[in-house]
What does this fold into?
Amino acid sequence: MLEFQSSAISGEEIQNLNDLLQSPFKFRQHWYSRQCEEFLADSYPNSRLYFIDSIFNSALATLILMELKEGDEVIIPAFSPEWLLSAIKCVSATAVLADIEPQTLNICVKNLSAKITAKTKAVFITYFIGMTTDLDEILYTAARNDLALIEICSTGLGATYKNKALGSLGNYGIIGFESLASTNLLNGCVWIINNDSPKTLDKIAQLSNGISNCITEPNAALLLARLNIFNASQERLTLLWNYYHNMLKTLEEEKHLRILKTLSQNIHNSSNFAVILPNADTCQALKKHLFENQIDSQIIQTELNYLESNLPNATQFKDCVLCLPIHANLAEEDILRVSLAINEFFGDDSSLEEFAEIKKALLDD
It folds into this structure.
């Protein structure tokens, strides 16, 4: 079975863990956590970074920090995870779903503006599999209405919007290191504070007695090993993403599917390659076809119940997004294999020799 996801192993993982076990001082002083923070600080020079044990707890901490109360409203995209709704409920606030825009499946700015009321206090952006939308309009809308803007970038490490790292544009950012994140850690995230006013920092101190370094040191030791090869892994993922794109673009031109892409002024970290199918039945059928060919894939399940809401785009694209295998351990032949299987599904007569020619041309480039 061709795995959907596989961790990028640097070879330093065991070395770091052994070093941690043999160095109680490093354990007590959170040495590996601090090294991870220094690595990420290059992308967030004007932000404060706090390591938290889960994305949910970071979102909850953000909501508590904003002192939301019953009756307050928080706008979130229709394609949001269930845990975000749960975090909002924990502070007795009300989640208001905004529709998505078709190009990147992120929050629709026009619908966002229509959802704002006197009760609205914050807006969450949950970058759909690391894709960005027109953030200038969102930033303007949030500032004009005095709303806090929170970015959730569970697969956004290394991605940028107009040369600015995702997570650095709003008031708060959350970058996850969970199973779908580009570093493939099991848990943990970094909580990014872009508003470091004395009042905000005082609230953070009250919220927790030293909220930083909440991920375990063994987890931080693993994370540092993978961060050290992050740039090399991203180069490899970008190459594989481009292979997919070139091998499937004919199917896109024939409107069998649509390749999900970020906006031109942005950099996607290539941690996901997703195609949008015409409907949920086709998506399920293609996933089954790939499985029968020993290829794992994943349908992005939209967990929130919005079918009775006036969210036409979210309803249209529900369960129509299929993510294909992409990770640094894949070979070019694996991309060829997946692409051939997808072409077979749509009845394309392209031969293996034709795909081999495409591959050779790409390698020559």
Q: What stands out?
A: The first strand starts at residue 48 and ends at 52. The radius of gyration is 21 Å.
